[in-house]
Amino acid sequence: MPSTVIVGTQWGDEGKGKVTDFLAERAGVVVRYQGGNNAGHTVVVGEEEFRLRLVPSGILYPEKLCLLGNGMVIDPEALVSELSELEGRGVSTANLRISDRAHLILPYHKRLDELEERGRGAGKIGTTGRGIGPAYNDKSARIGIRMADLLDPAEFHEKLAANVELKNHYLKQVFGADGFSAAAIEEEVLALAEKFKGRITDTSVVLHEALRAGKKVLFEGAQGTFLDLDHGTYPFVTSSHPTAGGACIGAGVGPTAIDKVIGVVKAYTTRVGAGPFPTELKDATGDRLRERGHEFGTVTGRPRRCGWLDAVVVRYAVRVSGLTGIAITKLDVLDGLATVKICTGYRIKGEVTQHFPASLKAVEAAEPVYEELPGWSESISDATKLADLPANARRYLDRIAELAGVPIILVSVGQRRRQTLILDELF
Ligand code: GDP
Ligand code: IMO
Ligand code: MG
């Protein structure tokens, strides 16, 4: 059962898409297990750039099976537009299947996301506005509508009517906003469903058959460890479980089906949206990382907040997801810096800790304790093996591995597939 989970170790946008696409060449199946189109996974193949939102980053290999797991929340409109965009660019989506247990994001979820954010005022989370939180709310409130319901129009009609009634009441009473017409949503969504209902199936069964047949499976996490509902900087998190445990629940496999867990670590740190970020740089170095790393959101285009690598964060991810190895991305973005810093602990009220606190007040008060290492002036984008890297870049990597306590399995030095150095056994 050779299967590997890929998780973001920071606040998302670590380069999970690039790493998944690279590893997918060796896999048979790629599964998304949580989140929805709040994700934006960029994959570059040749001269083409693909920004995947719902579809797993294995789709660019036509023979790979791609699954949207039960743990996802799926907006039918976004799904149809992503599939037709891919098909329009000559990418076959014939091998894509959708879990019958995945929940739907409907128009009122998007509207509520927007209104609830507005209502939070200065305390806003900075969500992607895609209706993610409201859809997961309905799931845990046990009133959500699932893909399976689209296959039974009478069931869909009934559930939608009950939900719209409830939401309209909430929209009017709490926000003084207009309500929705259940009939209009029904007509729109059933028309969209015509385009993908043939793909709806029990993806857990499909996955188990693939595992039994000895196929290699990649579980592609979206978001990151610190956006996890339980393990992240709550409440500045998303509403799902990007950490490795989420793969079991969100794809329908037991922990015994997973052999390896790879954490994707950007060589520095970024965050989009609000919430604490101890190593954030609000200076020229932060601006330099943003410019050189093109750190602007894939989904919303917002500038990403940038800062030094935080080993407290990485170690935390190693612990909560049981990482067996890490993949370092965007090392090339650090080219040309005289020195590079790694945060090794936080000083909070005079005490140094190596554990990320639960209290956001404590995180906000945390002063990073930095270790400074010499930088490198050379461009590393053409490196193809570890030995091609300048000694100081290798020293930086060694120190990261030492602080993380797990080996580095690959290093990425650019967007392209060939800009990937393999350091250890991948699968
Ligand atoms: P994801 O959400 O974790 O998949 O990451 P995103 O795709 O949102 O953001 C990562 C960005 O960095 C994408 O534009 C990638 O193409 C790009 N990228 C990935 N790896 C590297 C790398 O090693 N170097 C550089 N310069 N860019 C990279
Ligand atoms: P990928 O998969 C970075 C952030 C949002 C916001 C918070 C909650 O590309 O790494 P949500 O819309 O999920 O309710 O927003 O989570 N966020 C991400 N940040 N990368 C992502 O995905 C993200 N998905 C959500 O900015 O702070
Ligand atoms: Mg992204």
Architecture overview:
The protein has 427 residues and is an alpha/beta fold. The chain has helices at residues 16-24, 76-88, 107-120, 132-140, 147-150, 153-175, 182-193, 203-212, 245-251, 284-292, 311-321, 360-365, 391-404, and strands at 3-8, 29-32, 41-45, 48-52, 65-68, 73-74, 96-99, 103-104, 200-201, 217-220, 260-266, 269-271, 305-307, 309-310, 325-329, 339-348, 351-353, 367-374, 408-412, 420-422. It has 2 domains: 1-100 and 202-427, Adenylosuccinate Synthetase, Chain A, domain 3 (Alpha-Beta Complex); 104-193, Orthogonal Bundle (Adenylosuccinate Synthetase, subunit A, domain 2). The longest helix is centred in the middle third of the chain and has 23 residues, at 153-175. The relative contact order is 0.15. The model has no long low-confidence stretch (mean pLDDT 97). Magnesium ion binds next to loops. Guanosine-5'-diphosphate binds next to helix 1 and strand 3.
